[in-house]
Amino acid sequence: MQSETVEIAQIRLRPGVTEEDFLAAFQRIVDGFVRQQPGFLKCELLKKDNGQFLDLVHWAARSDAVNALERSSKNDACLAYFRLLEADETDSNSGVEYLANVTPKPAKRPVSWR
Question: Which residues contact 29 (CB under 8 A, 6 or more apart)?
């Protein structure tokens, strides 16, 4: 059984890209692409003190995350979003990590009948 995976992307904006434009493009890809992908659980966008961002996407399994990233390369909204970001042009996965979520699930409490 595969464990829940958190995809972490460290994001730097290209020079001249405004935060407002970035946030609008981010919302478009989340609403129009990411949420429709198999295995998607939730996503969070965090802003670091240095102005960079961290995109955390929770997936049911690592394979869901990897497959979604592959499909994103064929989606016009995703491609427009990617053009706003600084990236290593030689590595489409630059800045992306996949981490297994190993947080223990809470123990189920027995139901008390009174």
Answer: 72, 75, 77, 78, 81
Nearest to 8 by CA among 50, 51, 67, 62: 62
Radius of gyration from C-alpha coordinates of the chain: 17
Q: How far is CA 32 from the centre of its chain?
A: 14
Phi, psi of 85 (to 5 degrees): -105, 145
Read off the pLDDT of residues 20-56 as tens digits, 9 standing for 90 and up: 999 999 999 999 999 999 999 999 999 999 999 999 9
User: Which pTM was predicted?
Assistant: 0.83
Domains detected in the chain: 5-100 (3.30.70.100)
For 71-107, the pLDDT digits (tens) are: 999 999 999 999 999 976 545 556 789 999 888 877 7
How buried is 44 (Cβ within 10 angstroms: 0-12 exposed, 13-18 middle, 19+ buried)? Answer: exposed
